[in-house]
Each structure stands twice: as structure tokens, then as C-alpha cells.
Amino acid sequence: MNENIMEKIVSLCKRRGFIFPGSEIYGGLAGTYDYGPVGSHLKQNVRDQWRYTMTHMHDNIVEVDASILMERKVWDASGHTSAGFTDPLQECKKCHKRWRADHLTEEGKTKCPECGGALTETKRFNLLVKTHLGPVEDDSTLTYLRGETTQGIYVNFASVVETMRMRIPFGIAQVGKAFRNEITPGHFTYRMREFEQMEMQFFVHHSEADKWFVYWRQERMKWYVDLGINPDHLRFRPHEKSELAHYAKAAEDIEYLFPFGWHEIEGIHNRGDWDLSRHSQFSGQDLSYQDEKTGEKFIPYIIETSAGADRATLAFIIDAYEEVEGGRTTTTKSVKEIETVLRFDRRLAPIKVAVLPLSKKDALIALAQDVAQMLRKNWIIQYDEAGSIGRRYRRQDEIGTPYCVTVDFESLEDKKVTVRDRDTMKQERVVVAELKQYLQEKFSL
Ligand code: GAP
């Protein structure tokens, strides 16, 4: 894996409808990307799998969907408006390019890495994205786009406890957009200014915080491995005391081996009682919790699992990416070429089944469309009649479609179709009337 692979992945993502640069027809907007039709399905599957594991499978974890816009005081209480949520910034005096001081090499700390100009002293730069609500743009209407989904959970803590009768230990999960004015967005969707988080806050008695921290860090690692990421490409990285976020008592990252190095895809944090205490103080509402059995009243500790939907999606794409030298489809003319296949776990694959009529003859197209319509009720289907069959298989391999169903002239006679398996390349003739059940069994394996 190297930077070259990253270029190929970015190009594949664009070419095959996974991810496009944001506002591309206007030259792009730095730090933003748009998911195309195929990428939207993939990211939705990543969210769905996260929800399945984190809420659906847990009796004591519920989900909320809070506003992106929140009362400005939330960000004072959370510590985001102060030094805790800043990055060190240096600006080039000559070309005015801005750099994150902690990303510069020792040598680069005095000179601009691009034009060699002198750099300013380091300033702290706040990452919150500002906006104004209402028709007047002054300090009274200033607020922020949320910098993390977390805070939307805390402001609803008391309502969730009350309405859902939650008893400690329990969790509140949320999936949604977050915004950060990153100084140097980069590495494709790895560091963006608008991104999506999948977060879960687990509320516990302080005496059990360490135990739950260990539990959740294991669970979260398992999630990536279970969905197909090679365990050799994943590792834990505990935070040094000096790099702990302002709220954290302990923190560990799950890192993935990207082509550009080991980098964080998820953080597991012991946030102590920082957040609920601060919100109690700033809002004037008592956010303590009373244990029904013991009568003890306390501010719960919080163990947070904070994953990035975009970083996870990118890691799943990179890990699924495989180049096959000399080609894998013998039906293609260009067998000497490298062919690409994305070996997604079937639960993540954006398109589950492709239906491909062998030719554009009316009778074949009619049968193929019937087959596609039948399968559409269960799965996301792509119907494709454009180009040679070899080229169509390659297109499906490049987006990681687990099964291709080909309708040929014999199908008109024997009412059977050919099912091709993405990974084994095995082809099987299956009776159309049994196709749904056949695929159901395959997908449940
Ligand atoms: N609530 C805790 C929190 O937000 P974080 O480590 O700042 O912690 C958690 O962020 C996760 O959010 C990261 O592990 C990453 O997956 C994702 N994330 C953070 N900043 C991001 C960015 N600029 N672009 C894409 N994803 C980002």
C-alpha cells in the first residue's frame, strides 16, 4: 500500500459513483465531498451496521436524532469555545497559506513548506464553524454548527432517562453530521470540514468506568474486524496524558493503516463526569441521576465510542480494494490488464445483485427486467445492458457487487439464469423461480 494506491482509490471512487469532490462544477470546496449513488448506499450500509451492532442488539442503548444547531451556551459548557477545541496555526507571511503547526516537520516550523516564506508565530485557531440565526448578524445571533454529535446527547440526557425509564448502565447513540473548520483538510475524506459521526455515550457509575472502557474498546475493535477489515491493518493507540482532549480522563484511538500511514478512525474516551457536570452548571438544570435501589444520587461517568462514518467508509473501501494482475475475467479482451475488485463484506456491498442481459434482444431484455424487478423487492439491484458482458462484470467487480445474474438465450428456453460469484468467480445455473431463495441463502451465509 502506498500513496499511489490512494490516487487509484480516489479515481475509482469518482469514476464509479462512490465519492465526488464537493461543489465540483464550481472548482470544488476544500474539505467537502459528496457521496454519489453507489457511495450513498455504501455509507448507508456502514451506518446501518453500526446501528445494528450498537442499538438494535442492545436492550439498554437507545438512539436520538438531535439538531445540528444548538443553543450557543452548549459549546461554552462543553469547552469547545475555549482553548480545548483549537488547533495550532501558523501562516506564511509571503503566500498566506495556513498550516497546522503540529503537522509541520521541525524544519518546516520556521519556513513555509510550499514557498519557503517565513511563518508567523503559532496562534490557537478555534475549529467551531460559526453561523448566525435570524435576520441580524451580530454577536447576539451567533451560534455554531455542532463540532461533535456528542453534545446533542447530553442536552437530552434527562429527557431520555425519564421518557425511556433508562437505568444505569445504559447508552444513548446518535449518527449525524458534525462540522469543524479544519486548518488543513486532506487525505480525501479522511479530514473534512463537514463529516459524519456515529457516537454512543454509555452512562455508568464511576466505580465501573474502567471496566466499561475496556469492554467498549474491545467491542468497537471487533466491529471493524467482523465487517471484513484485516486485523493486521488495525491497532489501538492509547493517548499520552499530554494529548488527552479537555474532557477526557482516558482515551484510546482505533487506528487503521491507510496508504498514508496509521491514523485514527475511532476514539474511545472516558469522559468522566465533565460533560454532565458542566451542563448542570451552565443550564441550571440538575443532571444528576438517582439510583432507585441504593438511593445514591450522582453525576454518571461517560464512556464514549466515537466513530467517523466517513473514515470508516474509507477504511472499508481501502481494505476491500484488490488489484488482480493479468485480469480475472477471461471474457474480456484486455486479459493482460490489471483488474480491480472491491471485496466488500456482503452486508456492506452497495449493490447486492447486478442483472445483466447477454444481448439487447427484446426477449432477453424483457426477461432480465422481470428478474431485476423480482429481486428489487429484497435488495439494491443494478440493471445493466450497456457494453460487452466482460466489461459489465468488471464494472460490478469495481463496485464490489457480490452477485451478477446473467440472462442469456438459453434462459428463454430453460428459464434458468447464470449467477456469478464475485469472489470465487464460480458460475451456477439457477432456475428463475428459485433465484430469490438461492440468493437469500447466499446472503445469509
Ligand atoms: N465526541 C468525541 C469526538 O468528537 P474526535 O476524536 O474529535 O472525538 C471522533 O472525533 C471521530 O470523528 C474521529 O475518530 C473521526 O473518525 C471522526 N472525525 C473527526 N474529525 C474529522 C474530520 N475532520 N473529518 C472526518 N472525520 C472526522
Description:
With 445 residues, the chain is α+β, with helices and mostly antiparallel strands. The model has no long low-confidence stretch (mean pLDDT 94). It contains twelve helices and 23 strands. 31% of the residues lie in helices and 27% in strands. It has helices at residues 3-15, 37-56, 73-77, 150-154, 157-164, 209-226, 274-283, 309-320, 362-376, 389-399, 409-414, 432-444, and strands at 19-21, 33-35, 61-63, 86-91, 98-100, 123-126, 129-132, 142-145, 170-179, 194-204, 234-238, 250-258, 261-272, 289-290, 297-298, 301-308, 321-324, 339-342, 353-357, 381-383, 403-407, 416-421, 427-431. A seven-stranded mixed beta sheet has the order 3-9-10-16-13-12-11. The chain has two domains: 3-69 and 147-317, BirA Bifunctional Protein, domain 2 (2-Layer Sandwich); 337-443, Anticodon-binding domain (Rossmann fold), CATH 3.40.50. It binds glycyl-adenosine-5'-phosphate (GAP). Glycyl-adenosine-5'-phosphate binds at residues 148, 150, 180, 182, 191-192, 195, 197, 199, 264-267, 304, 306-308, 310-311. The site of glycyl-adenosine-5'-phosphate has 19 residues, from β10, β13, β16 and α8.
